[in-house]
Design a protein that fits this description.
Number of domains: 3
Number of strands: 11
CATH topology of the largest domain: Rossmann fold
CATH architecture of the largest domain: 3-Layer(aba) Sandwich
Largest sheet: 6 strands, mixed
Oligomer: single chain
Strand order of the largest sheet: 4-3-5-6-11-10
Radius of gyration: 21 Å
């Protein structure tokens, strides 16, 4: 517990808050990129403790939330087929497709299994040579090395019954898309520490310079986040726009070169559609031609599936930081963890899930998190 407790020290937190208050002389709007940071901020009430000059805007940093509806429908189609073992992290099972989710497919007889690593799925493929085993490979740069390794191992072992349904997305192009949007109010970023621990910081100085915004690589504990805010506000007050590493215990300038090499061997950059946001150029990865045989989308011929987002769900605006979850009329009423309209309500990193779980509701709205079961459904295993 030592290494957790020391980043939750209330006295140090008060000291950092005092420094932020003393530094901020005018309004500033900062975006935390990662959904894990959003949950930490809401859980600990960091946004409510900050001086009124500092606003935190929740970004699109939840890979489950931005997985496009058409990819969810492709997963549902594949998982429904006989002879398939469909493997996924637990937080994808409640993400709604057009008319159902993976839990529904499982209830209807589909062999849908929760795993904790793509290598678990690989072992299932080895143990079930007469079945097709598909792993739902979603995530930002953080999960890409393990998914790449699974495919690399499958080829080395000569497994022909293993494949990935890939929906990987990349953070830097998303930041560029946010900054070029006409409604953008973001003046600085808390960059995701876990992404930078893999990829390093090389892509961020150009973004900071082009858009003249400070970018502070930040961790996930309360003191990590407060230190990131302190550094970002200090830069803004000084008129600076640099990349700073406030998470040196996990992030190095070069990232993890071995992990990057594995990603580059197995994946190539591609355009990617983001749920609720739309297409962002060069914002994703797909399997290279050398590993195309392990691409479930081609193996099961589901590339033609197209969908439309439900008009009632405003998750796209939440993911772009244009509104808070409570500004959506469906939040906490027609959209709850049991009846989600979008992934942001059921993902363990979704902003809507954070607001619901930690009872952030508008005055006069129904009380959130009413039952223990609903609170558990906000953050499923995974």
């Amino acid at each position: 517990m030592k290494y957790i407790d020391e980043f939750n020290d209330p006295q140090l937190a008060r000291r950092l808050l005092d420094e932020i208050r003393a530094t901020a002389t005018r309004p500033w709007a900062l975006m935390e990129v990662c959904g894990g940071q959003t949950h930490s901020i809401i859980r600990h009430g960091i946004d409510q403790l900050l001086p009124e000059q500092v606003e935190l805007i929740h970004g699109p940093g939840c890979p489950v939330c931005v997985t496009p509806l058409e990819v969810i429908d492709k997963a549902l189609e594949i998982a429904s087929r006989p002879g398939v073992i469909f493997c996924s992290f637990g937080d994808m099972l409640r993400v709604p497709g057009t008319d159902r989710d993976l839990f529904r497919v499982k209830g209807e007889g589909g062999d849908v299994r929760v795993v904790y690593s793509p290598l678990d799925a690989l072992e299932l493929a080895r143990g079930n040579p007469d079945r097709e085993v598909v792993f739902f490979a979603i995530g930002f740069e953080t999960t890409a090395p393990a998914n790449a390794m699974a495919v690399h191992q499958a080829r080395r072992l000569g497994l022909s019954n293993f494949s990935l349904l890939v929906s990987h997305v990349r953070v830097p192009p998303a930041i560029e898309a946010i900054m070029t949007a006409p409604e953008c109010r973001v003046q600085g970023f808390l960059a995701a520490g876990h992404v930078c621990s893999v990829m390093g910081m090389a892509e961020y100085p150009d973004l900071a310079e082009r858009f003249r915004v400070p970018m502070v690589v930040t961790g996930f504990e309360p003191l990590d986040i407060l230190e990131g805010i302190r550094r970002a506000v200090r830069q803004l007050e000084r008129g600076e726009h640099r990349v700073e590493n406030a998470y040196p215990r996990a992030v190095r300038e070069e990232g993890n070169p071995a992990a990057v090499r594995m990603i580059e061997e197995v994946f190539e950059v591609t355009d990617r559609n983001w749920r609720g946001i739309g297409p962002i150029p060069a914002s994703g990865w797909r399997l290279t031609d050398a590993f195309r045989a392990y691409d479930a989308e081609h193996r099961f011929d589901v590339s033609g599936i197209r969908t439309e987002e439900p008009a009632e769900c405003r998750a796209g605006e939440v993911l772009q930081g244009l509104i808070k979850p409570t500004e959506c009329g469906a939040f906490g009423t027609t959209c709850t963890p049991r009846t989600p309209l979008g992934a942001t309500m059921v993902s363990s990193e979704g902003a809507c899930a954070a607001y619901y779980l930690y009872r952030r509701m508008n005055a006069g709205a129904p009380q959130a998190g009413g039952s223990a079961q609903e609170q558990e459904e906000v953050a499923p295993v995974g």
